[in-house]
Automatic annotation (TrEMBL):
GO molecular function, one term: 16S rRNA (guanine(966)-N(2))-methyltransferase activity
Organism field: Pedococcus badiiscoriae
Protein name as annotated: 16S rRNA (Guanine966-N2)-methyltransferase
Record flagged with keyword Ribonucleoprotein: no
Matching SUPFAM superfamilies: S-adenosyl-L-methionine-dependent methyltransferases (SSF53335)
């Protein structure tokens, strides 16, 4: 069972796509992740994009905890349908679901820079494809200067290949899951 952990929609059950190849983030991992995000004070009023959304659990959790806008991107038709149903059941304004590939969505800049980005791709997505997604976030100006980028992968995966405009800010391991946190690189101050 996947559910919203906390916030306005706390304890609400989420449907999960059957047979779509999605891999929902466990409640335990989401609880730890969102505890960290609350500690960092990045959720209230956040502009969120959840790439490879699956059921939408990460983006919908952010909405439940105070994000102002959430864009859920899912390419699998069945998964996108479930994501739309979950978003509708949540009943929180500001949530949009896009049935499209991540690459297509990222090829055009956002209406405004995002403050929190989740990338939780299928484990079979190659490292080069993930690096291209991260590069597109920078190249198409998806990121607010204070943005936080969260990448979730198998604990056996290597650290993502960050574009030079992003720098690693931390990582956590939860059993078979590893999460990396990155943000825009602070320009060097020249005296």
């Amino acid at each position: 069972m996947t559910r919203i952990i906390s916030g306005r929609a706390g304890s609400m059950r989420l449907a999960t796509p059957a047979g779509s190849g999605t891999r929902p983030t466990s409640d335990r991992v989401r609880e730890a992740l969102f505890s960290r995000l609350e500690h960092l004070e990045v959720l209230i009023g956040a502009r969120v994009v959840d790439l490879y959304a699956g059921s939408g659990a990460l983006g919908l959790e952010a909405a439940s905890r105070g994000a102002s806008t959430v864009l859920l991107v899912e390419s699998d038709k069945a998964a996108a349908k479930v994501t739309k149903q979950n978003a509708g059941a949540l009943g929180i304004p500001g949530i949009t679901v896009r049935h499209a590939t991540v690459q297509r969505v990222l090829s055009v800049g956002p209406p405004e820079p995002q403050t929190l980005v989740f990338l939780d791709p299928p484990y079979e997505l190659g490292e080069d494809a993930l690096a291209a997604d991260l590069g597109a976030l920078v190249d198409q100006q998806w990121l607010d200067p204070e943005a936080l980028v969260v990448v979730e992968r198998s604990s056996r995966s290597p650290e993502p290949a960050w574009p030079q405009e992003l720098e690693l800010e931390g990582e956590r391991r939860y059993g078979e899951t590893k999460i990396w946190f990155a943000g825009p690189r602070t320009p060097d101050v020249v005296a």
